[in-house]
């Protein structure tokens, strides 16, 4: 099901059905949902789903609605904007913008959230453990970034550090998002997409600074997004780790948000305790089947 241009609303029934190794026919008998309805949802062909159907599926698989339904926004919807007016200095904060392209009823709008990027360089250390003697000179360096959202009213306080021509264009076109809009957008993003946006910020920072990502140095990079109460209550969603070496920046966060990896493990683990923890309803079903034999 598609809504809003290239944004994709996905019902993840296939993920849970396949992981649980239950047939559509069996699921239909247990839940009371018709087989054609489940088949269409499973194959991604359903054009609409009733609330009671969603409630039944969430109850059966013991999951939340946000796990059953996800919204995928393609990376091309986002663009990184460097707003700092002066040349990058690794000892100073940077001002950046995250531009989001939103399409609604065939009308495209551009929205921008502005962040202060605080940079911290941690002491270097040598990587010797697990390496042979020829590589004992490999250096490991740590970089830490904190991205804090800037209130519209506070932007004027940063006027000496912001490229005013770019900021003027953003203001004239009324592109600045308020805090509620920014939090709403970022709450809807998959962690893999936020990791991608953070990666763009890191790559820009490195390419415009005196940091040299060579083959002899490995950088461990951490980004923490500060979105007020939202990030304080869900710190794991807004904490990202990267590795940089040989001119590359690699995200260490699972592109699938970790859930596919969890269920891949479940395919290979037949332990009843593990299955009961992950799918309590299926364990009860299995018990009933066993008793009925």
TrEMBL record:
Which keywords describe this protein according to UniProt? Answer: DNA-binding
Question: Which SUPFAM superfamilies does this entry report, sorted A to Z?
Answer: lambda repressor-like DNA-binding domains
PROSITE patterns (alphabetical): HTH_CROC1
Which GO MF term does the entry hold, naming one?
Answer: DNA binding
Give the matching Pfam families.
Answer: HTH_26
Ranges of residues in domain HTH cro/C1-type? 13-68
Q: InterPro entries this protein is in?
A: Cro/C1-type_HTH, Lambda_DNA-bd_dom_sf
The protein's name is DNA-binding helix-turn-helix protein
- Species of the source: Lentilactobacillus hilgardii (strain ATCC 8290 / DSM 20176 / CCUG 30140 / JCM 1155 / KCTC 3500 / NBRC 15886 / NCIMB 8040 / NRRL B-1843 / 9)
